[in-house]
Specification:
- The complex is a heterodimer.
- By secondary structure, chain A is of the alpha/beta class.
- Chain A has one domain: P-loop containing nucleotide triphosphate hydrolases (Rossmann fold), CATH 3.40.50.300.
- Chain A has seven helices and ten strands.
- The two termini of chain A are about 15 Å apart.
- Chain B has two domains: about 190 residues, no CATH class; about 260 residues, no CATH class.
- Chain B has a six-stranded mixed beta barrel with strand order 4-5-10-7-9-8, surrounded by four helices.
- In chain B, β4 and β5 form a beta hairpin.
- Classes of the chains: A alpha/beta, B alpha+beta.
Amino acid sequence: MDIVKLNEVKKNYPLGKVMVEAIKGVDLCIEKGDFISIAGPSGSGKTTILNMIGCIDKPTEGTVEIGGRCTAEMKDRELTSLRHEFLGFIFQSFNLIPVLNVYENIEFPLLLGKDRIDKKEKHEWIDYLIEEVGLTEQRIQRPNELSGGQRQRVAIARALATKPEIVLADEPTANLDSKTGEGIIELMKMLNREQATTFIFSTHDPAIVSIADHVIHLHDGLVVEEQRRQHDAGTR
Amino acid sequence: MPVLVKIAIRNLREHKSKTLIVGIIIALGIMIMLLGNSLMKTAARGVQRSFIDNYTGHVMISARTEGGLSLFGAQGPQTGNFEIPRIPQYERVYEHATSLPEVGNAVSQVSGYGVFSFEDKGNQFGILFGIEPDSYRSMFPNSITVTAGRYLESGEEGILLNESIVEKIEEDIGIGLSPGDPVLVSGYGPTGFRIRELPIRGIFRFQQDVEGLSQINFIDVQSLRALLGMVVASAGQMDLRPEETRFLEVEEPEEALFEDTLVATSESRSEDFSEESLLEILGQRQPGSYAARIDRGAWNFILLKLEDEKQLKPVIAKLNDWFEAEGLEAQAVDWKVASGGFGSLADTLQIVFNVLILIIAVVAIIVIMNTLVISVIERTGEIGTMRALGAQKRTVRRMFVFETLSISLVFGLIGVAVGAIVIGILNVTGVAAPNQFFQILFGGEVLHPVLPLSSLLYALGIMVAIGIVASLYPVVVALKIQPVQAIQVE
């Protein structure tokens, strides 16, 4: 089943007085449970593609379907709900809420929706996530007391808090050294297998591209190459 | 949503300098507002007290006039008209007014202007309040202190001179007056000047002496009526020395009196012509009853003291309705009108003060708004992230409203506390009136401000309103932040 579907997607940005064609027509299908890397040099349109999948940007032409729903006609409120229930985000610059500690940052998305989950259950789930990303000792520290790698781990845990179908990560390793970056991708891959969550991340770092099962190479707003690798046993 | 409160409060703590700037403005604004309001309110109460307790009572009944009429005479464009109309059908009006359950005490008064003459040495102007001593004293028991001589006694003729008038006469004319001395008083009425020699019974001063009231002297009502030409059947003795009779050469006194009688009679006939009134007119032809009727009839004002101050407006409305229903050319007004504008001073200042508050509020709103907009812009990435994670617009709005509300609440309360302490200190030490103007305003020489609950609620209300208004625009800015802006964080 295709959880994400892009049909003939084009995206133009105004840059001063000229229009920049960021995406020039992309067709894409992503299956549930995939671990996908969108690779390409900067300016190739990786972030734009991720933003459109993440429902925080809309295509100029073409359609984006998330979980079988077309996003083009949706209102801001519906898109927000869709993001909340269906998607998780990991950002290049971590984007943690500075005034909240590790636990509270991970809890934050759980406090936004209408559905209230049991307090004890919520508590156990957040503690489990903290343990999974290896931050048990930093539980009540503020983001500015953490290293880059630790911050990104918090962001990963936060992205998984609402048990989303898809986690989007825009250059999650760009602000990290290569060793930490690899660790982050390994963590994501592990969670991908454990939680059966679809992970889509963008990167221009060839070293971590290879960890993904499914690599989409972008260049100048077009898909130039798509590689699918055999899944390891037990992935699905 | 408690997490929003948590974020709001932590953000305020995190950005201490910004919070302090906004907070101090709020606290100062509230403090000034509270302090000013308290002074205003206390002053207004003081003025109210000093007028109601000492000169005017709560309600003043007089004949109906076009311009404003105060206890001191005509106000506004008619100033200079010396004749104060008398209350029509005084007896009925008095009986009706005093029969109202809300009315506690009542007294009648005649007001006029007089000149104290000292042969060729000079004259001194004064306001004359014609009273019936016993009833006046029971209405305003503590209004004056007799410093020399004694109070007027019922039925006797005489004058109580204001201490400041006595001082002025001594200073300007060089004549020292003391109780027992006679003084020549001339009054002016519709029939011209009349002059009388009256014994000074005593010298007094007002408990709360303010410049505007230092001209007032008390005189027995019969003498004042005579001076003003209100009495037509007076048995008053005119003991005039030859040099004083020149005042009377202006016209024939007998003829003037006669004319006056005619006018008065025709008026009453046209107003209510009934068998009763006819009999009354006929009855007046008998000399004895004629005099008696005038004694009870010729008054300019009835002053009423109410049991409960809150009944002021209803009682005035009730009285005016009754006058209208009965076709009486009379009116009831409150103490502010009765005091001839002195009582409204505090009101005027309250308006000026409110304008000041408005300016403070606008400045505060602008500063707070500006600071908040900067804070919103600085947190663009954070807000974008929240939106991307699934925070609806209303959540963002709430977060900022919490932020402004908590800052205005905390610093507002600090302002209230500091203001209350300052008021408390001033209450103990008192604020001395720097000049006569403030004396009128303060209702005395020293003001002891109190903090009425209404001022407190008013200040808190304004504070919350400032918080809400100031956050409107910043919230609009915050709501314009798109989730995609989350990725613009550096």
